[in-house]
């Protein structure tokens, strides 16, 4: 690694960060795929996911 300048080090750091982000996105994809059904994830009705995740229905829509 003799003769490596700052730009080369930044390039390697950028490749490392992009690889970490790719791994994180792959992990998140698998977790999301296991957690939610395909029908729920591809729904086009606004708020459908929020309605499915409501734990305390009286608090849906904010405080009154």
The gist of it:
This protein has three helices and no strands. The chain has 64 residues and is mostly helical.
Key traits:
64 residues; mainly alpha
Q: Indicate the radius of gyration in whole angstroms.
A: 21 Å
| Number of E-state strands | 0
**Overall geometry:** rod-shaped
Structural class: mainly alpha
Uncertain parts: none
Describe this structure in words.
It contains three helices and no strands. The protein has helices at residues 6-35, 38-41, 48-52. It starts with 5 loop residues before the first helix and ends in a 12-residue tail after the last helix. 0% of the residues are buried. The model has no long low-confidence stretch (mean pLDDT 80).
Task: Walk me through the topology.
Layout: H1 6-35, H2 38-41, H3 48-52
């Amino acid at each position: 690694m003799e003769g490596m300048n700052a730009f080369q080090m930044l390039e390697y750091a950028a490749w490392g960060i992009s690889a970490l982000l790719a791994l994180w996105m792959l992990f998140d994809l698998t977790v999301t795929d296991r957690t939610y059904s395909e029908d729920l994830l591809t729904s086009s009705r606004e708020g459908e996911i929020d309605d499915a995740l409501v734990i305390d229905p009286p608090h849906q829509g904010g405080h009154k």
